[in-house]
Amino acid sequence: MPRGVQKSIEERIAGIDKEMEELSRRQKNIQLKIKDLEAKKQSLLNEKKQSQLAELAGLLEKSKLSPEEVIRKLTESKQGRESA
What we know:
Layout: H1 9-63, H2 67-83
């Protein structure tokens, strides 16, 4: 037993087109939100890195070592572990 009047093929095509347009619009909005979130994440990562660099600079200052001395010591330490 049929339920109501069946839509014509043109009406069904138009309905599909409308649904596709809506999905495309939502997809664009989601992509914009993703880009915004990526930018916010990158900003936070940059902030974290700056904080870590400031902390490292503070430790260098407290230790009275120059950056070159620290690099040399770390390089020597790394080479010593690799040869062991």
